[in-house]
Structures are given as C-alpha cells and as structure tokens.
Amino acid sequence: MVIAVLKVDLYIHGASSLKDKRTVIRGIKDRIGKKFNVSIAELDFQDKWQRAQIGIVQIGNDFNYVEKNMNTIFKILDSNDFAEMMEHSLEFL
Fold this sequence. Notes:
Blueprint: E1 2-12, H1 18-35, E2 39-44, E3 51-60, H2 63-78, E4 83-92
Antiparallel strand pairs: 1-3, 1-4, 2-3
C-alpha cells in the first residue's frame, strides 16, 4: 500500500475577500478532483484572503501510478494562473 501526501502553500493573486479565495480554491479542487481519485482539503490560512494551504492525498497499491498522478497534480497546480505556488512537500508513506 502506498500513500502519497502533497501539501502546497498558495498565494492567490487578486483575491480581495474570502469569497474570492474560496472560488479559486473550489476551482482547483473541482479540476483536480474530476481528473484524479484524490482527497483534497484546505489545511491552513482559512482566515487569510490571499493565502491558502491545501493537502492532497492519494492511496493505491502501485507506487509508480501514485507517483505519476501526484507529479501531474503538482504540474497542474504550478501552471495555475490564479494562484502561485509558494512552498510544497510530497511524502510517500
């Protein structure tokens, strides 16, 4: 069994309210959630307008498959126009 945990800190450009931030986060969660079988949650900075920390977890039995998915998710987040990736960490358990 392989568990992958991707934690990402985001800076959300142009967010002037929590509603703007949640719209961007919801879009990211919907886009990734439709394509991959992962769990996504906002972990920190819930009260900050332009900051967010999200956690993405996938569990599987094939390391290469899980690693490939997490790398693809990372690339999607890195190429997002609405939020800039500030920090990230990827762990396999």
